[in-house]
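Quick one: structure tokens for this chain, please?
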Amino acid sequence: MTKIALIGTGHVGRALAPAFAKAGHEVLFGSREPDARTDLDHPVVTVAEAAAQGEIVVNATPGTDSVALLAPLAGPLAGKVLLDIAVGLTAESGLAHPNSSVSEEIQRALPDTRVVKSLSTMDSTAMTAPGELSGPGTVFVSGDDEAAKRSVESLLHDLGWPADSVMDLGELRTARGQEHFALLFMGIAESIGTYTFGIRVVR
């Protein structure tokens, strides 16, 4: 069992919490307004408290807010695995980080934290129920720390992603590809009429 701190109480955090709990993990939320989050089934503390308490921390905040929110937490996040799911989009649905990625900016702000990018190429339903898609999908992992990536891959398996669906893209700089896929993701969603779908890498 791992104590997982979910930073963010939106759709992604709310989808991941019961899925991780079902897999046997202890879950808590970190929120900028913990006292206002009375409708959640898991403890809600401040962002700083969640960062300190979690063994693995998940960034499920809007990508345009993530760096400013996490940068002051260098101390409690030092040495920890941070699974970053965020994608930064502008008000016009463009990329907020066209020449970089949220993950890389977090890593620069938190050099002692082991940042791993994953789950950013799908909606929250597909993240936690890949077996309900009409066929197998691919989930990507990017990061500079090999052990941290293996820890994240273990969490992916807990969410229902089999080993042959997990693709390690390599260094954290490849997180750009995961985040920039958001533009194609929105086009596909509009074309098929739903945000719940997967993609599959075929040879």
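The chain has a mean pLDDT of 96.
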